[in-house]
Specification:
Elements: H1 2-14, H2 21-49, H3 54-81, H4 90-111, H5 119-128
Helix pairs in contact: 1-3, 2-4, 2-5, 3-4
Protein name: TetR/AcrR family transcriptional regulator
Organism: Bacillus cereus
InterPro entries: Tet_transcr_reg_TetR-rel_C_sf
């Protein structure tokens, strides 16, 4: 299931052109938010299993690198060249972005799901951060 979801996400995200990093983030966060709402029980199982299943972990790592990270890094370089993102290594920009997005999703769906969330405001705050 995981490889299919990675490939589907990549197709959904990279089929469009983005005029800004903010625009890309908006699409990515909304996409992953809807995915987490729909599939969180499966995500929890993956979070628990991946560290102990080296074959699954390797497969996911390879897919994420080829299907996602390489494409994201190219977009990051493009936005850096346009002066929209500071000049730090693209892998650092990606790591910092992932930290913010995953922080939102894990807090919202795993750590504090019972809180009264204003999802749109939290998504917007994450994008602006």
């Amino acid at each position: 299931a995981a490889p299919f979801f990675v490939q589907t996400f990549a197709k959904e995200i990279f089929k469009s052109e983005y005029e800004s990093y903010e625009g890309l983030l908006r699409v990515v966060i909304h996409n992953r938010f809807k995915f987490a709402q729909k599939h969180f029980p499966m995500i929890k199982i993956l979070i628990q299993e991946v560290p102990f299943q080296s074959e699954l972990k390797n497969e996911i790592q390879q897919l994420v690198e080829t299907e996602l990270f390489s494409h994201f890094k190219k977009l990051i370089v493009k936005f850096q060249e346009e002066g929209e993102i500071i000049e730090i290594p693209p892998s650092s920009v990606l790591r910092l972005t992932l930290s913010a997005v995953l922080g939102l999703l894990l807090t919202r769906f795993l750590l504090l799901p019972e809180e009264k969330w204003n999802d749109e405001a939290e998504i917007e705050n994450t994008i602006q951060f």
